[in-house]
Amino acid sequence: MKVEIYADVLCPWCYIGKRRLATALDHIADRDSVEIVWRSYELAPEEGRVPGPTAAGAMAGWWGDQASARVARIQALGAAEGLELNLHLARPVNTFDAHRLCHLAAGRGRADQMMERLLHAYHTEGLNVADPQVLQRLGTEAGLDAAQVRAVLAGDDYAEEVRADRRRAAEHGVTGVPSLVIDGRPPVSGVQPAAELRRLLEGPTGPPGVLVAPDRTG
Predict the structure, then answer these.
(1) DSSP 28
(2) E strand or H helix that includes residue 189
């Protein structure tokens, strides 16, 4: 089984979904039969590299009076998965280079570690994941060769791979993240409870339902 995960570093639901998927994978009989492929999906390609308002501040602009309650809900769901989602520290930035690093990591069997380090850096530590110096450190902490990370960040390696993932997302009908494409079937939400994700991974009796696009946070 091939599971393609469309995700972006900026999305707190992607961090929650990553934890739930890990729990589901831990409870299936044949874990080695599941191939996980991380796919790039830029939620805010128009963002610059210099951090602006916080994620919580941006959510206030989207949701108005409902923002505080919705932020609290995201944080509570994250805490239930052992995550500290500091939406008042995280500041959205461009994630193109972060995705390029994920492709570098994928070629070296470190994609999961790279995505984990990026998600933690952004959502928990409030780091600027568009800053080359920050990305250099995160790449090496994820187990990548420092010289290779430096070379990727200095050039345009894996840029086409990121763009190809965006085209692939459109072809599959992915309109939000986290989304799972299982063996090429229609996308499903990747933030479902672990038990439901486990059911899908153990072999659904029919094609998964088409993903309903979530709001802009996920």
Answers:
(1) S
(2) strand 188-189
User: 64-77 in b/e burial notation, b at 16+ Cβ within 10 A?
Assistant: eeebeebbeebbeb
Question: Diameter of the chain by CA atoms?
Answer: 47
Q: How many helices (H) and strands (E) does the chain have?
A: 9, 4
In DSSP terms, 35 is beta-bridged to 2
Per the CB < 8 A criterion, the answer to whether 36 and 110 are in contact is no
Query: What dihedral angle (degrees, nearest 10) is formed by the CA atoms of 160, 38, 141, 136?
Result: 20
Residue 211 has pLDDT above 80, yes or no: no
pTM above 0.90, yes or no: yes
Give, in degrees to the nearest 5, the angle at Cα 122 between 176 and 49. 85
Give the tens place of pLDDT for each residue, 104-136: 999 999 999 999 999 999 999 999 999 999 999
d(CA 152, CA 160): 13
